[in-house]
Amino acid sequence: MAEMTEPSERQAWMSTLAKAPAADLARLWDGLGLAPEHEMLRAPEVGAVMVRGRTGATGAPFNLGEMTVTRCSLRLGCGAVGHGYVQGRDKAHATTAALVDALMQTDKADRVREGVVTPLTEALAAAQATRRAKAAATRVEFFTMQRGED
Amino acid sequence: MYVAVKGGERAIENAHAWLAEERRGDTSVAELSVAQIREQLSLAVNRVMAEGSLYDPDLAALAIKQARGDLIEAIFLIRAYRTTLPRFGASAPVETGEMVCDRRISATFKDAPGGQVLGPTFDYTHRLLDFKLAAEGAVPEAPEGEAKDGPVPHITGFLNREGLIQTEDESDATPPDLTREPMELPASRALRLQSLTRGDEGFVLGMAYSTQRGYARNHAFVGELRIGTVEVEMDIPELGFAIGIGEITLTECETVNQFKGSKTEPPQFTRGYGLVFGQTERKAISMALVDRALRWKELGEDDVGAPAQDEEFVLMHSDNIQATGFLEHIKLPHYVDFQSELELVRKLRREAEGQAAREAAE
Fold it and tell me: Are residues B101 and B56 in the same domain?
């Protein structure tokens, strides 16, 4: 196994894998051509997470409603343990996310980062940038027609 | 008296077969896919997720298809499905201050930092039927502008700096959950907000409207309305740290309300709060108005006897699945109940007729 990666970097790739469209992850994963041996520690399981908000955005927490989440844990032959927690109900998505998480902790990390994590991160950022730009185009520019003191 | 009866199986089976056929409609018209519903009827999908209390656009779209577009029936399907899911845990409270906003407007500050961003709104449309939509055709790309980086601050934060608006109590207490324990009254604000966010849009709208018409009027301004995406984070015990587990669209409404002050509080503005899954603007504004009306006790205001101030009335009648269940059960077989009522009425009539006959004889 490679040296332990910083939690912040691992948090980032796990969050990316959680949010990425399942089809995009599947396509990039297939393109990588890796099929590492692994044993399941927790078979893919669909469940719910209660999402909380805060009263008045800043006050005490309250329960807003649940969202579907699928999780999976596995161990590679080399011993690296990967976890996948992904939005939605796609078991293949969770399994692939766990495999990517595990491989990112091995000497295959650079290949997986380049082939899967970075393209997914960039695609999510690009999609967000497009929405931001469309929102920006609807920003109101006020101009004064006439002032009352005339 | 209980009378076991059998029968009707074939009628039920045939009724369901016909239901499936009617759901499909004219087969010379292309079938609707779940993805089409998710993408093109997204506000219906949002309502089903909000009131079904489960964020999953694909499931909500499927429920709408199965329910033939009956949104309360679709919400019922989602609520039933939700109960089959194991719960992995609860998220950290979402940070709406870090929302990536599609829309963000304030009715109180024209020059709000971050600007007035209209987003994909029905506002300012002429509400004239657009017959172009009856024909298929490509839609031109929406124009793009120059986005400003960084989060958009909440408007109430500015009022807060001057101390002109009541602050929310800071707390990280675990909130009560009405899906786990029966609702107890009086309810905490956390419980009221959970109930309102999954409450029926029509009911919550009606309650909010009643406050505007004078039943516990609370002079609400929309301090801010924002729609956009937030990341949902959860602590993962096996990892020992939190990760983002998804991204959801939310609508948040903060109202700024007049408050003359009380024995303990100086005159200041108070707040009502609405936060709802999806792009659900009407619901979020309604929720904020009703939240504010229900706060009369903690703010030391008078109970004027208005329906929107009556916690029991609002919270116990806002759930359209509970209401539907009780309302619609009266159409199911009540033969035995009705038989006994029939016998009672016949008996009362016999007695009344006997009485009349005796009086006539006297």
Answer: no
Domain region containing B203: 96-119+152-168+177-324
Shared-domain flag, residues B246 and B185: yes
Q: How much is the ipTM here?
A: 0.92
Of A18, A68, A133, the CB nearest to B244: A18
Q: Is residue B141 classed exposed, middle or buried when 0-12, 13-18 and 19+ CB atoms within 10 A define those classes? A: exposed
Write out residues 75-104 of A within 8 Å (CB-CB) of B: 83, 85-89
Q: Is the alpha carbon torsion for A129, A131, A132, A134 positive or negative? A: positive
What is the span of the domain harbouring residue A27?
Answer: 7-133
CB contact under 8 A, A57 and B97: yes
Average pLDDT over chain A, rounded to an integer: 93
Quick one: tokens of B129? 């039927």
- Interface probe for A, chosen from B191, B227, B232 (most Cβ of A below 10 Å), is B232
Cross-chain residue pair A69–B246, CB shorter than 8 Å: yes
pLDDT tens column, B253-307: 999 998 777 777 788 899 999 999 999 999 999 999 999 999 999 888 889 999 9
Give the chain A residue whose CA is nearest to the CA of B152. A132
How far apart are alpha carbons B234 and B236 in whole angstroms? 6
